[in-house]
Amino acid sequence: MSRFPIVLAALLATAVQAEPPGADTIIIHGNRIEAVLQHATLELPQGATVINASGKWVVPGLVDSHVHFFQSGNIYTRPDAADFNAVVPYAQEVVRNKARLDAGITVVMGTDAGNIGVLHGPSILREMRLMQDSGLTPLEVLKSATTNGAIALGKADDLGVIAPGRLADLVLLDADPLADSGNLGRIYRIIKDGRVYDPEELMNSIR
Fold first, then answer.
1. Which domains are delineated in the chain?
2. What is the pLDDT of residues 110-124, one digit of tens each?
3. Each residue of 74-112: pLDDT tens digit?
4. E strands along the chain, which residues?
5. What is the DSSP code (8-state) at residue 126?
6. How far apart are CA 143 and CA 140, in angstroms?
7. Which residue of 36, 106, 167, 171 has the fewest CB atoms within a 10 Å radius of its CB?
8. β-pair partners for 32
C-alpha cells in the first residue's frame, strides 16, 4: 500500500456516478478514496503517484454476490449433473426473469465461482454478458455488480460507488462499459486496497 497519495488524473468518464457531478480526478490515500474533484482545481499532493487515465473509464470494484442469475444446467455454469434446463428451458427462464426485472426487483450479479469449471474472475465477465443478453441494459448490469452488490452484502458504506471515504477498489477500463458490458473485460489497471496492479505484469509474473 502506498504511503503517498495516488492520483487518477483526467478521467474521461465514470460509469457509476461520482460525487460531486463533473468530477474527473480521484485521490487515494492508503486504502480509501480521499477526494473526488475536478483536476483543473487540483494541487498535486507531495510525493503523489499520478496515473494518467485520460481517455479511460473508471468503475467501482466489482462485487460477485455468489448467487445464481440463471440455473440453466449448462456445464459451464452448473457442473453438478443437475440439468435444470430440462425442468425450465433456458429461453423460458429468460422471459421469467425479464418479467421480474420489469417489476422492479433489485438484481445483484453472482456466479457461483469456486465450483468445478467456474473460475473466479473470468466467470464474472461471462455472467454479465449473459445478463445483458437476457435484456438488462449495460448500466443495469454494472449496477448489479457495484451499487446493488454492495447493498446486498451490507457494505454500501465501503463499496459500490466512487466517493470520498469509500474503499479504494477501482477498475480502470479502455472502453465504455455503458456502451457494452463486454467492455468491463477491457481492463487497463486495477486498484485494490490502494495498490495499483497492471494486468499484463500480473500475467507475465506467472509465465
1. 6-61+160-205 (2.30.40.10), 63-159 (no CATH)
2. 887 777 677 778 889
3. 544 444 556 667 777 777 877 777 787 778 788 889 887
4. 6-9, 13-14, 25-29, 32-37, 49-52, 57-60, 170-173, 187-192, 195-197
5. H
6. 5
7. 106
8. 29, 167
